[in-house]
Amino acid sequence: MHRFIVWLDFEAVIEDMWLGEISVKADVRASRFELLKISGNIGKHNFSRLHADIRKIVGIYERSGVPISENDAYRSLDSIYEWLFDNFFAYHASTIAEFLNDIRLAIHCYLREGFVRSHHFPAGEEILYRYRYPPGCDDDLAKAMYWDLMNKIGRRPIFPKFTVTQSLKDQF
């Protein structure tokens, strides 16, 4: 998890990011987290819900030495999205998948210990199994959710641990 946080906080540089709508080319510097969040918001919202992101874009360009106005940022949303989504994060998608898979496997390993502690077969039963609920787990909904979670943890993860080739991690 810590490695993913460090990776997200890294200040990336997108060289020669061209915004054709306003004829601006810049080496854009921002954390991968900022860029990922802006890209995601542009992808799911229309321009009327992007004011906070527009201010972030203006700030990123200002820090990168090429000031633009909020109006310029709004006009450039299509180009910004294309650069971030189609180029920057398309390149990093496999690295992000590796990090998320590692987190998922760590959660599975952690919960597996709880599964081993709580899973048992009642005396005289060979087919039926039960779970010993953790202390304080008295609510019916909580018990049902715990049961479902333990059933999922009892199976092996679908994806094994994998690593992405270093050539897909060196740029940006």
UniProtKB/TrEMBL annotation:
What domain of life does the native source organism fall in? Bacteria
Q: What is this protein called?
A: Uncharacterized protein
